[in-house]
Specification:
Length: 294
Amino acid sequence: MGKKPSINLKSRERLVSWAFLAPSFIGVMVFFIIPFIVVILYSFVDSPITKDFVFLDNYAALLQNKSFQTAAKNTLTFSVIAVPLSVLLALGLAVLLEQKIPLKSQFRTFFLSPIMVPIASIVLIWQVLFHQNGTVNLFFSNFGADGVDWLKSDYSQIVIVILFLWRNLGYHMILFMAGLSHIPNELIEVARIEGASSWAIFYKVKIRYLSPTILFVTILSIINSFKVFREVYLLTGDYPYGPLYLLQHFMNNMFRSLDYQKLSAAAVLMAIVITALIAILFIAENRYGKDVEG
């Protein structure tokens, strides 16, 4: 008799927990899980109407598509350049701000301010700066240089990398500063007493304790590197100059032309690559930072 109220209480608490979780769970299922399952199914059929199973034919056609090859190459190039730069520069800024330097708060505010700027304003700023008659060309004209249409030149991806860094460095810097503040000072003091150099302390102590933060910032940078499509699209439209034609442009154009098979196959391949990359990062972080966990 004495156990029944306890069992009923636990059941009631479990029901209440599921009731609170239900809206989020249903939302994730309806807007993420089920649509992605549908995308996977579409990638294996000849069309959404007939739905004849063609196995890997859509993937083979996709990999042979010149536009997809260009988009994949450009996206990979951008991510390989932008993501490491974002992580390294943000870490460098965080270490710099850890020192006693003048105007530290103003410096931090300067790098955080882009987070609050709307996308439309960023696009406008970049158009003013990098238009053929923009501010950058006006500056270089003082040294006798000819004007360049930056977004329609071989330098176009560099312009977008700068935009990406300007947009994201501040937030990543704050994350690294938070990670640095949680490193035990006792370890650093012991290392100094033992005669360790500043570089040895940074590499063998700080970097090891920052490994979870580095992992998180790297994953965040990878995700944000795909989100840069918004700015590129607003700056250049559906068919930008060569180096700026990204995977999202390809998928957007496939959607417009109702080619759901190539769109679905491209989305599945991109999801597989991102998942594999993040898994590799987790494995690397687990091996490198396991001795400082807990």
